[in-house]
């Protein structure tokens, strides 16, 4: 068999083998890896290259070395999940950089981190003054997470005592002008609903690049033609407006009728509807 054909077949085989190895080693973002895991990936890649180019002449020995390295990496990952002590040994521990607003200089020296690097990392977390930071920690991946002081945190609906509706993950229902039936079905919707929403906003399916539906029944679309302006969905706001209008109509009917029985009925129903509206208001307007 010719050398180039052997090289081609070996490359194809190792390509798929590498794909399987990466899947077995789990999902890892290269930017979020610990240094040890990153080096493991590099060494495995080097083994694959050396075997492919016949730099390791004995193919069986090369595959054995590759298998041992992969097996040890997977085993350490498994043991790290089962034991915190092994996890700390393999991946390292997090390091506190700021505690109670005080910069921990000794911990910074152990992490080989300068003051400018710390300030830069804080700015990336929207903390432009270290005086605004209550607590900062460097994770084993090198990422820095920041907890702002209580008076520097953004105000939330919980802080204001407001109730807001829980939100679920939006589903992509249109992609490249094609309808995705499975996400529609997962949300209890169908194509008829989708076509009606597109008709209401005055756009065609073919002109849609991406369309997403949220748990409130709103459809958000992005068009291929960027010159067209798409109105924002207002399903919840329209429902609240209709409830308010119905409440006002009931009060108006109570004032206009001469029948005491009808007046009492309209007033009673207006009061009940107002209670419902007040309960739904945080969910419809936030």
Structural descriptors:
CRO Repressor; 53% helix; 286 residues; alpha+beta; 4-stranded antiparallel sheet
What's the alpha carbon Rg, rounded to whole Å?
Answer: 31 Å
Structural class: alpha+beta
What distance lies between the first and last C-alpha atoms, to the nearest angstrom?
70 Å
Q: What count of structural domains?
A: 4
Strand order in the sheet with the most strands: 2-1-3-4
Mean pLDDT: 83
Shape: flat
Write down the secondary-structure element order: HHHHEEHHEEEEHHEEHH
Low-confidence stretches: none
Strand content: 5-15%
Please, could you describe this protein's structure?
With 286 residues, this protein is an alpha+beta fold. The chain folds into 4 domains: 3-89; 95-152, CRO Repressor (2-Layer Sandwich), CATH 3.30.240.20; 171-232, bsu07140 like domains (CRO Repressor, 2-Layer Sandwich); 236-284. Helices cover 53% and strands 13% of the residues. The chain is built from 10 helices and 8 strands. A 4-stranded antiparallel beta sheet has the order 2-1-3-4. Strand 7 and strand 8 (219-223) form a beta hairpin. Helix 2 packs antiparallel against helix 3 (59-82), helix 3 (59-82) packs across helix 4 (84-91) and helix 9 runs antiparallel to helix 10 (260-284). The mean pLDDT is 83.
């Amino acid at each position: 068999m010719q050398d180039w054909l052997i090289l081609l077949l070996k490359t194809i085989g190792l390509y798929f083998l590498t794909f399987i190895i990466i899947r077995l080693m789990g999902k890892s973002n290269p930017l979020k890896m610990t240094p040890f895991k990153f080096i493991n990936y590099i060494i495995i890649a080097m083994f694959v290259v050396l075997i492919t180019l016949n730099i390791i002449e004995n193919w069986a020995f090369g595959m054995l070395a590759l298998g041992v390295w992969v097996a040890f990496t997977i085993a350490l990952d498994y043991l790290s999940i089962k034991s915190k002590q092994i996890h700390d040994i393999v991946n390292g521990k997090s390091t506190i950089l700021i505690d109670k607003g005080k910069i921990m200089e000794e911990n910074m020296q152990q992490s080989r981190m300068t003051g400018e690097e710390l300030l830069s990392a804080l700015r990336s977390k929207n903390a432009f003054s270290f005086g605004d930071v209550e607590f900062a920690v460097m994770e084993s991946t090198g990422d820095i997470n920041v907890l702002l002081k209580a008076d520097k945190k953004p105000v939330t609906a919980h802080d204001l005592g407001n109730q807001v509706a829980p939100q679920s993950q939006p589903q992509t229902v249109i992609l490249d002008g094609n309808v995705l039936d499975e996400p529609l079905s997962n949300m209890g919707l169908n194509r008829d609903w989708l076509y009606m929403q597109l008709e209401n906003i005055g756009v065609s399916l073919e002109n849609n690049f991406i369309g997403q539906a949220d748990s409130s029944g709103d459809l958000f679309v992005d068009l291929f033609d960027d010159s067209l302006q798409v109105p924002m969905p207002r399903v919840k706001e329209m429902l609240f407006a209709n409830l308010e209008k119905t409440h006002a109509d009931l009060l108006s009917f109570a004032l206009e009728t001469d029948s005491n029985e009808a007046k009492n009925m309209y007033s009673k129903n207006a009061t009940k509807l107002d209670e419902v509206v007040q309960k739904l208001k945080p969910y419809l307007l936030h």
